[in-house]
Amino acid sequence: MYQTESWGSPYVPASGRNGVGSYSGGGGDPFERIERLAAESAVVIFSISSCCMCHAIKRLFCGMGVNPTVYELDQAGDPIAGKEMELALMRLIGASSAAALPVVFVGGKLVGAMDRVMASHINGTLVPLLKDAGALWL
Amino acid sequence: MGSHRMGETGLSDSGPSTHHHHHHHLPYALLHGMNPSSTAFMSQDPAFDFGELEEAIVLQGVKIRNDESKAPLFTEEGGRPSASTTLEMFPSWPMRFHHQQQQGSSRSGGESTDSGSGVNTISSKAEANIEPESPISRKAASSSSDHYHFQHHQMDQLAVSNGGAGPSSSSHHHIQQQNQSADKPPNEKTLRRLAQNREAARKSRLRKKVQAYVQQLETSRIKLSQLEQELQRARQQGLFLGGCSGAGGNLSSAAAMFDMEYARWLEDDLRHMSELRAGLHAHLSDSDLRITVDRYISHYDEIFRLKGVTAKSDVFHLITGVWATPAERCFLWMGGFRPSELIKMLISQLDPLTEQQVMGIYSLQHSSQQAEEALSQGLDQLQQSLVDTIAGGPVIDGMQQMAVALGKLANLEGFVRQADNLRQQTLHQLRRILTVRQAARCFLVIGEYYGRLRALSSLWASRPRDTLMGDENSCQTTTDLQMVQPSQSHFTNF
């Protein structure tokens, strides 16, 4: 389905490994972290494990045959880093309320929250984007 | 005074008796052969129940004679306390009757005469005049003598019905007998007449009540239309009418507001559809038709915006489809129509399409199906999560549990909004795929489809039960689609 423990190698949480410093505090600012993580996979979803809308968006991509990389921000090695990133994402998509997640990146570029993703799917721009990013081959 | 024709003698001489329009008193009058015009005298006292008075008079006479209590009849309608003399029988009467006598005009108003027993007045007054010592005959002012004669004649009639006496002389005699506190107990006919009086009094009161109620309804209706006008005005001024209390407390104010706005939206919908129809018929240029089509899209944008606002306050109202007709509600998906179903319905209606358009439509159908599926699964997970929260394990902290559950429930708003977003995007995409004329036709089909679905609800609700009609339709799973088929021929002209 989708990989949820993307916090994993080479980004093992806690303990002072090199990879950790990259997003678990100290290192870069949350925006940089986000940007970096988004560029690493064709489809990146920033999510919260208990959020049902996040579940819906995961189902959407799986239903299309896409294998997204999911970062559950509430399960980050460093909870503060996770929270920082959540706030950063909220600003990126221009959300006024706390319901920012899920947020989707395709091909390293921001697509947006659920409403934007759905709109782009309906107006037919999502699939070409996915194909260009190599997430979809049909 | 040999004549017994009321109209000629009694009334021609008396003052307030020239009201010939009291035909409402006919029932009683006919019963006793009275001239309708004679009933003018009846309705002078607006608040006095002469039915019971008449009873009181007659029965008092009996009481005096027999010294027996006729309580049941006497006190049926809050009758008067018995008195040993005729005078004291009407402690308050002299004044009132005096007042009545001085009233120049009779109370008309047809059957809604305020006196509960207007029809009884004559007989009771006639009866009242039986005893010469009665306050009536004594206090009667200017018209008393005339009235007395008049009533005397009426008494003749009554006496006729009473004792079955024929000629006037004997009835006079009969009356004389009664005038002198006759020793006979009240015969059957008297009792019957009293009962009739009571009945008439009751009917009259009932009529009055009904009239009052009808009056109330009328006033309410007027008020309602006034309120509607005010509402329309206020709406046009862009005022936000908040805080309208829902019907019977079942609707939240947000829900009531939405229902109101939705009703208006439906009216606007009809208007837009006739515009589209007219535009197509008139073969408007594309640029002109585009304006109408875009207006229709904005019309839908408006209802989605409205639902978004309402979802913040009362998502249950939207998601349970209280605002929709039963047939719509039955097929409701997440508080509205299911986009893929709509497209499925449209596919056959939109011919002819280019190949590219066909692909576009099918692609749209596919992606909306995927989106619907995703949202539905998300909602399922929400429900599961909610169940786990409120159903799971021992209740360690009830309030905490409830707080968590409330938090989860708040996500419902998000789902309804995303569903509406999906619907809105679908309509916009349709507009993009189709030409202007095709889009006009398409939206007309959509509007008519939902119109028929709504009509179906009404027809269903008013269908005759216990017929086989229901069986015919029960097997059809695509009734709505089949219903829409006939419209195809409607559009082949375009």
Structure commentary:
Chain A: Its main location: cytoplasm. The complex is a heterodimer of chains A (138) and B (494). Chain A is 43% helix and 12% strand. Chain A contains 6 helices and 4 strands. With 494 residues, chain B is mainly α. Chain B is 67% helix and 0% strand. In chain B, helix 17 runs antiparallel to helix 19. Chain B starts with 9 loop residues before the first helix and ends with a helix. Chains A and B meet through helix 3 and helix 5 of A and helix 17 and helix 19 of B.
Features:
heterodimer, A: 138 residues, alpha+beta, four-stranded mixed sheet, 6 helices, 4 strands, 12% strand, globular, B: 494 residues, mainly alpha, 23 helices, 67% helix, 0% strand, extended, disordered N terminus, disordered C terminus
Topology:
The complex is a heterodimer of chains A (138) and B (494).
Chain A: H1 18-21, H2 30-40, E1 43-47, H3 52-64, E2 69-72, H4 79-93, E3 103-106, E4 109-112, H5 114-122, H6 126-132
Parallel strand pairs in A: 1-2
Antiparallel strand pairs in A: 1-3, 3-4
Helix pairs in contact in A: 2-4
Chain B: H1 10-13, H2 26-31, H3 50-66, H4 71-74, H5 86-89, H6 93-102, H7 121-128, H8 135-139, H9 144-163, H10 168-179, H11 188-236, H12 253-281, H13 286-313, H14 315-319, H15 326-330, H16 339-347, H17 355-391, H18 398-409, H19 411-433, H20 436-461, H21 469-474, H22 479-484, H23 487-491
Helix pairs in contact in B: 3-7, 3-11, 7-9, 9-10, 12-13, 12-20, 13-19, 13-20, 16-17, 17-18, 17-19
Keywords (chain A): Cytoplasm, Redox-active center
GO cellular component, one term (chain A): cytoplasm
Main location (chain A): cytoplasm
